[in-house]
Design brief:
The protein is α/β, with parallel strands linked by helices. The protein has 13 helices and 7 strands. Helix content is 42%, strand content 14%. It has a 7-stranded mixed sheet with strand order 3-2-1-4-5-7-6, sandwiched between helices. Strand 1, helix 2 and strand 2 form a beta-alpha-beta unit. Helix 7 crosses helix 10, helix 8 crosses helix 9 and helix 11 runs parallel beside helix 12. The longest helix has 16 residues. It is globular, with a radius of gyration of 20 Å. The two termini are 23 Å apart.
Length: 318
């Protein structure tokens, strides 16, 4: 797909790869769009503006706390939308409830939102002091602290390696298991300091030097571990695999699918599923290579640095 000019940031929380998403999905007046990860409606607002009052937007979010703000922003654009507190793995059920057979486009912006990271009480950030929670839906499931209290060392090592590509997986897993025997690991900075000490002895500040000089970013030693714990707590890869299975049947002929991923484990699964879908004849075209954010967006929005957008177009036959 061609790349256009960089988009103007939309509000305080800028949607990642907005211009690329709009080019890939090409929303038209009267179409039906699904935003599987609505957040605060950064992408959804732009989609709703383009499909207009004759179209319809379905917004899904596993985090119910996002929906009131999303509704407020969408109502400034129009009323042809519905919001659903649901994981995107349940997309077929949501469509059935709305009496919609198939849609024109599906968007999924995987991972956590900047709003969740900014809220210390959610426990997603290794630089903000808060409870080690990480649940997208705080009404259900185990927190990251509860997971760390029971997971075996070998299981944790394997998860860090396979889901996070963490080079210090063995040392981190051993350190976590040893530390929890002395005291429960229940706070974000408690875990961040532990991992920082293991990787760089004598470095006590969990904030580290994420941005040591203009134009330069470093990955915090705890970043991959926090990411893996979030994935495990929210069963994100299982849900992604389910979405990839059902997406072709949810799209109309020539319907468009766009998925933004943020780490290699997600991207590998998306890439493989789209290729298999093309081989089966479900997709007529798929992305040869992922689209990436340009220099300006990477500098203004750190979340965009690791973002990869893959797309697919449903085949002509239903």
């Amino acid at each position: 797909m061609p790349r256009g000019p960089r988009s103007t940031p939309h509000g305080e929380h800028r949607p990642v790869l907005l211009q690329e998403v709009l080019e890939v999905l090409s929303p038209q007046e009267g179409e039906i769009a699904v935003d599987c990860t609505t957040g605060w409606a950064g992408h959804s607002v732009e989609l709703l503006q383009r499909i207009g009052p004759r179209g319809h937007l379905l917004g899904l979010d596993f985090d119910a706390e996002n929906l009131p703000r999303a509704r407020e922003r969408l109502l400034q654009v129009g009323e042809s939308f519905s919001l659903h507190h649901s994981n995107f793995a349940a997309l077929p059920s949501i469509l059935a409830e709305q009496k919609i057979d198939q849609v024109d486009m599906i968007l999924a912006d995987l991972g956590m939102s900047s709003m969740q990271v900014d809220d210390a009480e959610r426990g997603f950030s290794y630089v903000r002091e808060g409870p080690l929670d990480m649940r997208m839906d705080r009404s259900r499931g185990r927190s990251a602290a509860q997971l760390l209290a029971t997971i075996g060392e070998e299981e944790l090592r394997q998860a860090l390696e396979e889901l996070g590509d963490e080079p210090e997986a063995a040392r981190f897993a051993a350190a976590i298991v040893a530390a929890r025997q002395r005291a429960p690991i229940e706070r974000t900075t408690q875990l961040a300091r532990l991992l920082l000490e293991v990787s760089q002895p004598g470095q006590a500040d969990p904030r580290w030097r994420l941005h040591p000089r203009p134009g330069k970013w470093q990955t915090h030693p705890a970043a991959r571990t926090f990411q893996v714990l979030r994935i495990l707590v929210n069963r994100e890869l299982n849900n992604l695999e389910q979405l990839l299975r059902v997406a072709p049947s949810c799209l109309r002929p020539r319907g468009r699918l766009a998925i933004i991923s943020f780490h290699s484990g997600e991207d590998r699964r998306v890439k493989q599923a789209l290729r298999q879908g093309e081989q089966r004849g479900e997709y007529g075209r798929i992305a040869a290579e992922p689209l990436r954010a340009g220099y300006e967006e990477r500098q203004s929005n750190p979340r965009a640095r690791s973002a990869k957008l893959r797309w697919a177009i449903r085949s002509d036959s239903p």
